[in-house]
Amino acid sequence: MQRIILIGYMGVGKTTVGKTLAKRLGLMFYDLDWYIESRMRKTVKQIFDERGEEGFRKIEHNMLHEVAEFEDVVIACGGGTPCFFDNMDYMNRQAETIYLDGSPDTIMRHLHMGKGVRPLLLGKSDDELSAYIHESLEARKPFYTKAKHTVEVFPMDSFDKIDTIVGQITQILE
User: Rg of the chain's alpha carbons, rounded to an integer?
Assistant: First the structure.
């Protein structure tokens, strides 16, 4: 039975890496935000709008406890998941946790490549976005660094680069 949970800041590549890792290891892949959306029949943004961040974090906590009971899975968590309640300690008890550590520059590049709506970033200019990433990354690092493993991430603008990171993770897990 294998259970792997990927954590790290939004836009660092958890879903991209998670899908590829799951495929390589023959495991199911779950993105926690997608799981929440399918169970709640609402987007993360809608939940944020209706219930605020606190309401969303309670739902996220409960859904994490559901999905982290599954066997033979790779789970990509939202960027804030490890930072609330006892989520990080719980994940460490349940799974091999891997912190995908990306620089603010790498994160900015990924966010510009991505298409998704990120509620915490709406309406920010590039300068505001950069300042926000630096500030919140520092605040979240103490939670992220509790992961059992850390893999440094660089801009993943090709399949080869994604493959390299997945290769590093599979070596760590052997």
Answer: 15
